[in-house]
Write a structure and sequence with these properties.
single chain; 298 residues; alpha/beta; Rossmann fold; six-stranded parallel sheet; 12 strands; 16% strand; binds NADP nicotinamide-adenine-dinucleotide phosphate
Length: 298
């Protein structure tokens, strides 16, 4: 079996940190750089990173993920989320490197009454969603063999996620307003990291004809309200901060960027084709809350 050499765009982000932890267990040689060494808006830095790390596979876990800010800074969102992936895909193809790109449920409009599959038509509601969709298209144009994974409501003990945010808010607020009418498939970042490594292995071994879109989503379905309540209950159980949850509608919350009310992704194709499995929700929640509480800082 060829020893795997993987380069990852993104170092301090949630998926990037989960990949770092997973690669250690899987004895994979992983090189990582974020904005410091592989800025997606800097083609020369990207090419230098690729030439230095000589990977079999590049995983792009770098992204401009500020949904609300993107409404007034669409140019930056497109530079990082669309033009950066286009350059990266072009470079990967030129140098014979496999590419695994990452995208989001926010490419959908949320009107579908069931989980979104890879066959469903995108219809982004926000500047962020449009920039991510443009990135998907650019990657497919420049590197047809590339895989674009889509993920939804990523959480973990790493970096900044809904878990660390909710616990942080609960430190200073007795009650949190959380939307009750957005439903999604919360997915544990360490599981996503393992799935990305599995895809990388399959691509390098040439075991499957695997390219195009692939949803990486756990089968767990819940609203943001359910998720916040579960986080608060688990935080309290582990001796951390607790706040009451006040349900609000998305309309009343009135965030600058529109989110899909139905953000559910179907992970069926990934499970069937690659045997991807998911940590049970309660176990993943307990680990995430424990990790966030242990590192303090929230
Ligand atoms: N978090 C979610 O709930 C969620 C939901 C749907 C989809 N996704 C998708 O999942 C992927 C990973 O997201 P995440 O939540 O792990 O990310 P994250 O925690 O928000 O971190 C963002 C990452 O992007 C890197 N980055 C930002 N601007 C960059 C630039 N100009 N050049 C290079 N790297 C840059 C950061 O680099 P540094 O390491 O230098 O800080 C960091 O590693 C993204 O494609 C995102 O759209 C996430």
């Amino acid at each position: 079996m060829t020893p795997l050499r993987i380069a990852c765009i993104g170092k301090h982000g949630q998926t990037a940190q989960a990949l770092h932890a997973a690669a250690g267990y899987a004895s994979i040689e992983l090189r990582q750089a974020g904005r410091d060494g592989a800025d997606l808006t800097d083609p020369e830095a990207l090419e230098a990173f690729l030439l230095q790390s000589k990977p079999h596979v590049i995983i792009n876990a770098g992204s401009y993920n500020f949904l609300d800010r993107a409404e007034t800074d669409e140019a930056t969102a497109f530079a990082v989320n669309a033009e950066g992936p286009r350059t990266l895909a072009r470079l990967c193809r030129r140098h014979g490197v496999e590419l695994i790109h990452m995208s989001t449920d926010c490419v959908f409009d949320g009107a579908k009454p069931s989980p979104y599959t890879e066959e469903d038509d995108p219809g982004p509601l926000s500047a962020y969603g449009r920039s991510k969709r443009a990135g998907e298209i650019a990657v497919a144009q420049e590197h047809p063999e590339a895989i674009t994974t889509r993920v939804c409501w990523v959480f973990s003990e790493f970096a900044d996620s809904f878990i660390s945010k909710a616990i942080g808010w609960a430190r200073t607020q007795a009650s949190l307003r959380i939307v009750s009418d957005q439903i999604g498939t919360p997915t544990y970042a360490p599981d996503i990291a393992l799935a990305l490594l599995r895809i990388a292995r399959v691509k390098v071994d040439g075991a499957h004809d695997l390219h195009g879109l692939l949803h990486l989503a756990s089968p767990e379905v819940m609203t943001r309200l359910d998720m916040a309540r579960a986080i608060m209950a688990e935080s309290r159980r582990q001796g951390g901060p607790f706040a009451e949850i006040e349900p609000v509608t998305t309309a009343a919350f009135n965030a600058p960027a529109r989110r899909p009310l139905n953000a559910r992704l179907s992970g069926a194709r990934a499970s069937e084709r690659l045997g991807i499995t998911w940590t049970p929700w309660q176990t993943a929640l307990e680990r995430s809350v424990a990790g966030v509480l242990a590192r303090g800082g929230w």
